[in-house]
Specification:
It contains four helices and no strands. By secondary structure, it is mainly alpha-helical.
Length: 122
């Protein structure tokens, strides 16, 4: 019996919880709007003049909550892909040549390093 009455109350409880959470919203607040419409709540105050005057007409950044504008994405042509591949191959060959030169310089050094002199001994 008890479970049945709880299940019947569940939709009402969810509705009350949703209504309470809706009151937490900043811009769209249905609870506040109902109170203002019935005359119980205070109407929102407009921003002071210095705030309105200090805000720019347009912003140079994407505001929070707004999605970025769609960027046109264009795939590379076959010729562009081949040119990029050739450029990367040339860069790899240059790096491999520098690595080979560094290996040759390192191979000419003594195989075993000389130990550092101990301090305090004469």
């Amino acid at each position: 019996m008890r479970l049945n009455s709880t299940l019947r109350r569940a939709p009402r409880l969810w509705a009350l919880a949703a209504l309470g959470l809706a009151g937490c919203a900043a811009d769209t607040n249905p609870v506040r709007d109902v109170f203002v419409a019935t005359g119980v709540g205070a109407k929102p105050k407009p921003a002071p003049d210095f705030v309105v005057q200090s805000r720019p007409e347009s912003v140079d950044y994407i505001p929070v909550g707004a999605s970025a504008p769609a960027r046109p994405i264009r795939g590379k042509t076959a010729a562009e892909a081949k040119a990029t591949e050739a450029e990367l191959d040339a860069a790899r060959a240059a790096v491999e040549a520098r690595a080979a030169a560094a290996r040759q310089i390192g191979a000419g050094a003594a195989a075993t390093p000389t130990p550092a002199p101990l301090r305090g001994t004469n």
